[in-house]
């Protein structure tokens, strides 16, 4: 298996199983954005505010999200944004997810131009625990 942090970030990738251990070994900061309860753009922006540990002054719009992710003052050279419950969110809120993806991918591209690395990782909850 390819070690995700050994490669240049490209698009939204599947999060590795030992995410935190792997990230620590590569000196990558990890922030988790939980998409489980997102219903609309407002709740999505609140998920980013919480997951990225932003201040209440965060503008809660696409431009503000882009600015935060591309600002070297906010995040130094190596950041992984983990999108928890991504596949379910994408299925449930396709239009909102498409907008979010575009902003994240644009930010990833801009970070690369600055010589910074921004991984976008999709993580799914463990659905192995079945209740019979």
From TrEMBL:
Database matches in InterPro entries: Barstar (IPR000468), Barstar-like_sf (IPR035905)
Residues covered by the Barstar (barnase inhibitor) domain: 29-121
Pfam family, one: Barstar
Family per similarity comment: Belongs to the barstar family.
Protein name: Barstar family protein
Source species of the chain: Deinococcus antarcticus
Lineage: Bacteria, Thermotogati, Deinococcota, Deinococci, Deinococcales
């Amino acid at each position: 298996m390819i070690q995700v942090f050994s490669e240049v970030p490209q698009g939204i990738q599947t999060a590795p199983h030992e995410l935190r251990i792997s990230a620590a070994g590569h000196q990558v900061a990890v922030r988790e954005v939980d998409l489980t309860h997102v219903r609309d753009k407002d709740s999505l922006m609140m998920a980013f505010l919480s997951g990225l540990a932003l201040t209440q002054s965060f503008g809660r719009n696409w431009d503000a999200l882009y600015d935060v992710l591309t600002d070297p003052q906010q995040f130094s050279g190596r950041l992984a944004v983990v999108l928890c419950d991504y596949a379910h969110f994408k299925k449930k809120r396709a239009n909102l997810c498409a907008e979010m993806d575009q902003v994240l991918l644009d930010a990833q591209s801009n970070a690369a131009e600055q010589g910074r690395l921004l991984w976008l990782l999709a993580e799914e909850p463990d659905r192995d625990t079945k209740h019979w």
